[in-house]
């Protein structure tokens, strides 16, 4: 599946508010983030990604190891092929302007294809963000940063989500990965906790300590370590934040939680 993520290519005039702060109207400019595209955000053998930024004398720098991008990160010059899972992070730089905000994209190599698994979901997604329903969590269709009108993303609000996955055969597993969207300007936050059970036994758990922190828009793949073993059925309990944190204009109300894919390995 070719995933293309369109972002503005022009510089942004100061006197606007960004996630990092407010730039006063003092001749200061911040670059917009680069545009990136990948031929398959979920791949079996290899994936190729490209980065673009159409402003003279600008540079794009990137990382693939999960570290944030800075002026010493690798410089992008040509399409790059990946044969392993990685989180692509990129920023645009120019000697006369502020660096862009960082953009990121998880690119995942499929260890197991579970697209034929049977999935049940409680509660169902919100009517405004139904996605493709429960089976959309294993259909290998990756959503992008633009969630409005997308058939990939499912939105939930207010209650923990229970996802039961019948794998239809036994698989030796050590991780479950949950693909989420974070867009705090759209009141979409990361979950605060994910638990994984096999039957009634808890086999994995992760708490996302940074869920309440102010962060850039991003696609995230949350990896939950499992007790290594052979499993034919999994139940995930995904807990949204109880309420939007105090620093946000929506403080005290229920945030959105968006998911689009679950992987196992």
Description:
The chain is mainly β. The chain folds into 2 domains: 3-109, Immunoglobulin-like (Sandwich), CATH 2.60.40; 118-264, Jelly Rolls, CATH 2.60.120.1190. 0% of the residues lie in helices and 47% in strands. It contains no helices and 20 strands. Strands 14, 15, 16, 17, 18, 19 and 20 form a 7-stranded antiparallel β-sheet that branches. The protein has a 5-stranded mixed β-sheet with strand order 7-13-12-9-10, with no helix packed on it. It is globular, with a radius of gyration of 19 Å. The model is unreliable at 4-27 (pLDDT under 50).
* Overall number of structural domains: 2
The top-level CATH class of the largest domain is Mainly Beta
User: What is the fold-level CATH name, i.e. the topology of the largest domain?
Assistant: Jelly Rolls
Give the integer mean of the pLDDT values: 88
Order of helices and strands: EEEEEEEEEEEEEEEEEEEE
- The count of DSSP E runs of length 2 or more, i.e. the number of strands, is 20
Class based on secondary structure composition and strand pairing: mainly beta
Helical coverage, percent range: under 10%
Overall shape: globular
Instruction: Tell me the radius of gyration.
Output: 19 Å
Distance between the termini: 20 Å
Q: What portion of residues belong to β-strands? A: over 45%
**Which residue ranges are poorly predicted, with pLDDT under 50 across at least 5 consecutive positions?**
4-27
Largest sheet: 7 strands, antiparallel
What is the second-level CATH architecture of the largest domain? Sandwich
Please count the helical segments: 0
